Amino acid sequence: MLGSATTGAIVMATGVELRAPHGGIFVFFAIDGVLAFVLAVLAGMVVSAVAVIAAKSLGRSKADLAAA
After folding, report:
1. Are 19 and 30 within 8 A, CB to CB?
2. pLDDT by residue (tens digit) across 27-55?
3. What is the pTM of this model?
4. What element of type H or E holds 5?
5. Cα–Cα distance between 45 and 68 in angstroms, integer?
């Protein structure tokens, strides 16, 4: 959820407008601010990856870390 919230905040802050929100990458022609949209998605992916890595590392014990 952190990644999607980050993406949504960046998209709203930069004023990206998507007139056809149902077609994925096939509707790039309908996006005003394509570069900001792509950067927002990439930023959201990075935030999601960091959150998953952090969450997974919280559950490890010292024995698990020594075995790895």
Report:
1. yes
2. 888 999 999 999 999 999 999 999 999 99
3. 0.78
4. helix 2-14
5. 26
